[in-house]
Amino acid sequence: MLRAGLIRRSAAGLYVWLPMGLRTLKKVEQIVREEMNRAGAFELCMPTIQPAELWIESGRWRKYGPELLRIKDRHDREFVYGPTHEEVITDIARRELRSYKQLPVNFYQIQSKFRDEIRPRFGVMRAREFLMKDAYSFHTDAASLAEGYRLMFDAYTRIFTRMGLKFRAVQADGGSIGGDTSQEFHVLADSGEDAIAISDADDYAANLETATSAASAAPRHGPVEPLTKVATPNVRTIAEVCALLGVEAARCVKTLLVDGSAGDVVALVIRGDHELNAVKSQKLDGIASPLRMASTERIRASTAAEPGSLGPLGFKGTIYVDRAAAHLADFVCGANDKDTHYRGVNWGRDLPEPRVVDIRIVQAGDPSPTGRGTIKIARGIEVGHIFQLGQLYSAAMNASVLDEEGKALTMHMGCYGIGVTRIVAAAIEQNHDANGIIWPQALAPFQVVLVPLNYQKSAQVQEIADALYRDFNAVGIDVLLDDRDARPGVKFADSELLGIPHRIVIGERSLKAGKLEYRHRRETESSEISAADPVGYIRDRLNS
Ligand code: ATP
Ligand code: MG
User: Fold this and answer.
1) For ligand 1, what atom is nearest to the CA of residue 84?
2) What is the pLDDT of residues 356-382, one digit of tens each?
3) How remote is the CA of residue 154 from the centroid of ligand 2, in Å?
4) pLDDT score of 175
5) Backbone dihedral region for residue 234 (phi beyond 0: left; psi -120 to 50: alpha; all else: beta)
6) Rounded to whole angstroms, how far apart are CA atoms 161 and 440?
7) What's the whole-model pTM score?
8) How far, in Å, is the centroid of ligand 2 from the Cα of 472?
9) Which residues contact 192 (CB under 8 A, 6 or more apart)?
10) Cβ distance 100 to 403 under 8 Å?
11) In this structure, what DSSP letter does residue 369 have?
12) How distant, in Å, are the alpha carbons of 186, 201, 210, 211, 483 from that of 372?
C-alpha cells in the first residue's frame, strides 16, 4: 500500500489515505452502506470523543485497559476517544425510544475509532485510528434479537460476496464486549493473523480460541500396567520424558498449574502432544481470568514439587482434565517429586475419576465437532464481527421501553462491526502477485487505465486517448488516463502495482491497423482489440 501510494504513515498506527487509496476505501464504504440500508438499518453519526460518565455507567471505564485513550478537556473533565460506541448509542436509545412499537430498530455509522493497540502493525490492518462500520440493534426480546442478528449475518454475507473476497463466517469468543453468541467474518489469506479451524466437509469454522473437536466415542481401555515410580533425572520437557522412557507424547500427560480465583492453585491436565487453550480454560469455575500460570513460589507452596515433574497424583486442589487426557489408560505423568515420574497411571484406579473438560487447542486432523469431516487449520483476517449482546449494556445503563402493558422492558441489543479500513488491506493480502495489487472489480480505484504511448508527441494518440477518457466517463466507468511524460515501461509497471483490472494501450502503430492493445491484470499476455468500440468491449467484460 505504501509502494502503490495508497497510504502514508503519520505516526505509529496513524495513516493518511492518499487519493488513490481513498478511492478504494470509499468503494468499500459504499458497498457496506448500501447493504446496511438494504437490511433496514438507519445511518447516523456519533461523536468520536465520548464523555467518561457513560463509560463509568456501563462499567467499562474500569474494565477497559490501556487500549482506551482517556483524555481531559480544559475544564479537567474526562473523556475517551471511542474505541467502539455501545455506551453512546445505548444512551441515545434510552432517551429516544419510548415504546415496544418502535422496535426492532438498527442504527449504524461509518466512522473513526481509536484503540491504543499495544502493537500497531501491518499498516492499516492493525492501526490505532481506523474506520469501522458499527451497527447496534434494539429489540423487545431474545427471539427478535436472534432474527436481527440473522439479518446482519445475511447482510455481511452479501457485503463480502459483492467485494469479491473469499471469506468464512467463524464462531468466535465474545471477548471484552461480552455477550453469548458471536461470529467473526474472516478473509482467508496465508498472511492472516488469526488461525481458524475449518471442517473440510461442511461449513463448520471457528476461531482457534473457541474451536472444539468431536470427543472420542470409544470407551477408555482398562488398566493393564502396574503403577510404577521411575527416576527421570534432569528431565524437564515432555520430549525428554518420552525419549528416556520410550513412550509417545500421546501417552503422557502434562500438568499445568494456574492461578485459581480464590488465591489457590488449580491443575489443568492435557495430553502430552496437545496445547492448552487459554480462552476455554479461563472460563472454568474457580480459575482466574485472564488465565495466569502459577508462579514458582505458589507451585512450591502447594505441591513441594518442581515445575518439570508435576502431576495429578497427590495434587491437593481442583484438577480439571481435558477429554483426550481423560481418555488415556496406562499413561505417564510427573510424580510431584523432583526427578521422578509415574508410569502405568490409570484414572479410577490410581486417581479418582477425572473432572472432564475441553481445554485444548484443536489440531489439524482432529474430527470435526459436527461429526462430518476433519479439521484443517487456515489463516484468516478478521474483517467483521457480529454479537448478540443481550441485556448487557441496556441493564447496566437502564435502557428500557414500555411494553404492551405499559411496564418497563429492558431492551435486548446486538452489535455488528466491520473493519472498513482493514478490508482494503485484507483484499490486497488475498489478491496480489509479485508486481503488485490485483483488485477485485468492486474495489478497484479505477476499472480501466488508459496508457497512451508518446502522448506528449503524437497528436493522434493524444486525441484518441482524450476521447476515450471522455467516453468511459460518459458511461460511468471509472477510468484513469496516464498522461505523464514517462517511459512506457514505467507506466506499465505502475498500472500493475496499482492493480487496475483493465489496461488499454494506445499507440500509433496499432492505431494504423485500427487496433488497441488490451490486457487484464490477471493475464500475462496482451491481446488486440478493435479501436472502434473499446467502451463496449470493456462494458461486456465488466458485466460478464
Ligand atoms: P482484533 O481481534 O483484530 O483486535 P477486535 O475483536 O478487537 O479485532 P471488534 O472490536 O470486533 O474487533 O471490531 C470490529 C472490527 O474492527 C474488527 O472485526 C476488525 O475488522 C476491525 N478492527 C479492530 N481493531 C482494528 C485495528 N486496530 N485496526 C483496524 N481495524 C480494526
Ligand atoms: Mg482488538
Assistant:
1) 10
2) 999 999 999 999 998 999 999 999 999
3) 24
4) 52
5) left
6) 11
7) 0.85
8) 42
9) 186, 378, 379, 380, 381, 429
10) yes
11) T
12) 22, 6, 18, 15, 57
